[in-house]
Each structure stands twice: as C-alpha cells, then as structure tokens.
Amino acid sequence: MQPQTKYIALLVALTFFMENLDATIIVTALPTMAKTFNVMPIDLNIGISAYLLAVATFIPISGWLADRFGARTIFISAIVLFTIASVLCGLSTSLEMFIFARVLQGIGGAMMVPVGRLVVIRKAPKNELVRAIAYITWPGLVAPIIGPALGGLIVTHVSWQWIFYINIPLGAAAIYASYQLIENVKNNDVGQFDFIGFTLLATACLSVMYAMEKLGQQLDQMMPYLLLAAFGVAIFMVAIAYMKRIQYPLLKFDAFQQETFSVSIIGGSIFRISMSAIPFLLPLLFQLSFGLSAFQAGLLILTVFVGNLVMKPFTTRLMKHFGFRKILIVNGIIGACTIASSALFTPQTPWIIMIILMFMSGLSRSLQFTCYNSLSFADVLPKDKRYATTQFSLFFQISLGIGVALAALILRATMYVHGHAQAELIDFQITFLMIALVSLFALIDAFLLAKDAGDSVSGYQHRLN
C-alpha cells in the first residue's frame, strides 16, 4: 500500500475511533450520569440514541458537501465541531443540555468518517482495498469494546465529564494530520443540493428512531409509536422513489445492483443491530444485577476486545481460504450462539467461563465485521463510490442506533411483563436470547450470496476448493 494512502487510512481510523468511542463510552457511566441529571440509568440511553440519530440524519449530505467545498475543508470542519460538542457534553448540567450537545457531536461525526472513507476508497486500488478498509474498520470494532472499560476507569477515578474531554487532544491531532495528508479536491460538476431528498430522509430517520426510543419508555402506549415507525419507513420509501426520478439526487442507488453491496447493507445491518446491543446490555447487567462497579464491568467486557485483537491477524487469510459466503454463514451462526450465551451469565457464574465466552464473541464479531465491510465495495463501480460510501455509513449508523433502541425496548418489555421497576437478571436473559434470534436473520442474505462473491477482493479461488 502506498504510504500516503496508508496514513490517510490511519487518520480516518482515528476519527472512526473517536466517533464510535463516544457512541459507547458513556454506557458504564450511565448510573453516575443519571444521578447528575436526576433520571433513571436506562432513560439515559437517549444520550446514545440521540448521538447515533444525528449521525445517521446528516450522513447523506457529507458526500455532496465534500464535492462542493472540498474533502479537506469538510473533514476538518467536522472534527472541529465534534471536538467543541464534546466539551459541551462535559459541561452539561441537565439531560436536555446533554442531549443538545450529543446532537451537535453527532452532526460532526456524520461528516468525519464518510468523507474520510471516500478519500481512502478513491485512492486505494482494488487489490489493496481489503487492507485499506481493515485499517479503517479495526478502530470501529475496538472503540465499542474498550469504551465501557475506559468509561468505567474514568468514572471511577476521575469524573464522567472526562470521557468527553479526552476528545480534545485526539481532535487536535486529527486536524493537524488532515492539513498534511488530505488534498482539498472539489467536483465542479456537482449539482444543486437536493433539499427535498434530505428532508425526506431526515424525516424518515427521525420518525423511526424516535418511535423506537419512545416504545422503550412507554409500552402502555405502543400503537401511536408503532404508527410513527411505519410512517418513517413509508417516508423512506418515498425518498428513494423521489431521488430515482431527479437529475441530481442526494443519493443514487445504482450500487445496490451489485449483489455484494446489497448483502453487506441488508444482512450486514441486521448483524450490526444485534452486535451493537451487546455493549449496551452487558455493562448494565454487570452493574445492576451483579453489583459490580463501573470499572469492574468495563474491565470484564474488555475480554471481547482481546478477541478482536487476536482475530485481526487471521481475517485476511481466512477470507482468502474460505471466501466470504462460507464465513458469513458459519461465523454468523457462531456469533448468534455467543450472544445467546450471555443469557447463561449469573452472579454465581465463574469469571473464567464468562471471559472465555466473551472472548469467543470478540473473535466472531471481528471476523464478521471485517467480512461485511470488505465485501461492501468489492464490485462497486467508480461512478457509484461516493453514493455507496454515504449509503454504507448511513446504514451502519442507523443499525447501531436501532440496536441500542431495540435492546432497550426488549429489556423494558420484559420488565413490564414481569412487573419489575428495575431490570433484573431474568429480564436481561430474555433480552439476550431475543437479540440472538434477530441476528440469525442476517443468514438469509448470506445463503443467497454467490459462492464466488467478492473473490477479486478476498483472493479466494473457488475452483480449488
């Protein structure tokens, strides 16, 4: 890989790390933050959802802005906004102020990673695409796992505000590197901004995510929010139909004609929904049901990160030896089993058993994420890369937001059925089993995938196997 491409990929990886770290680092801090804001810990999941929702809402405009004003200008502006918003999060004294700051932070995050990923994909040749995407992807896998541990360490020994202040030096380093590495390339042929398309997409995202959030809080008033979610899905379909008919749409969907991209979006989103629920649920389980401190809970979950690390050197070889289809099917089943295994955890379960199971979860998680991310751009045409990058980032963030909201919804539903004012062990166990069941739906796309799908990227030779 050319040195400049490698360094840009590492720079984008840093911003991806910042974005995903802030999506999950507050998980172990929720009980402490809840006392500051005078709310229940589970109610603070809106702080996670609001951030992810803002990211998903503003991702679609990132590609247009990069073409109109230049990739470097938008990339650096996004980092500045993200860093300032992080400071505001730390200064928050009420839940309302915190949510506002998280939304600003999400808007900054929406510009950072898609623009950076687009720069990398445009520069990297096809035979180096897996390595380039691996550089970007790995921090996204690491951040949600070390986030709870890091958050627990900071909350225990300093204060929860510092989980946001650590973005200041990271942001400063990223801004400096951006000036040195990224060219401010513009596209003079970019059309007018598709305001109608953006409004439709934003309305769809807000409706679905808000409905999921409220369903998790008010199960006795389900129908209005179910209708709102259905409305959001309908608006999303209207947005797609509208953008297919105009000359300069906010998004084009030609990349979905490629089977590999379609599978990475649909099946990959289902997988990410399931996996993103786990870093939210486990810290709450360990603190509320096991009585562990925030730091102890985060440290225990760190074993998933160890699994990610151990698997990373083997992913390229596994993809080359087995191909994408076999891995997505077999490893998808293994991943579902590791999620379901969390339902076996009790305060009496030996720590070594929990550590082994979470380590296996990390192995499976890392391999599956890398496969989906590498498969996504295997056959995308150059003319579709800008839109495909935006769509990948959009569905990635939406799936993370839905995962957290779905976990909260199922957890609250089990609490409601059992008449529990606070989540108890049985509520967590049922939730883990339900999330594992959801993850199995990702296998449908994997089974339909061609046996030689993505061979040009993975290096897999089907005829020899």
Question: Can you walk me through this structure?
Answer:
The protein has 465 residues and is an all-alpha fold. It has two domains: 3-193 and 250-464, Growth Hormone, Chain: A (Up-down Bundle), CATH 1.20.1250.20; 194-249. Helix content is 76%, strand content 0%. It contains 19 helices and no strands. The protein has helices at 3-24, 30-37, 45-58, 62-69, 71-91, 95-123, 129-157, 162-165, 167-181, 195-215, 222-243, 259-289, 294-311, 315-341, 351-376, 385-418, 425-439, 443-448, 455-458. Helix 14 crosses helix 15. The longest helix is centred in the last third of the chain and has 34 residues, at 385-418. The radius of gyration is 21 Å and the shape is globular. It starts with a helix and ends in a 7-residue tail after the last helix. The model has no long low-confidence stretch (mean pLDDT 82). It is found in: Cell membrane. This is DHA2 family efflux MFS transporter permease subunit. Keywords: Cell membrane, Membrane, Transmembrane, Transmembrane helix, Transport. Residues 8-454 form the Major facilitator superfamily (MFS) profile domain. Its main location: membrane.
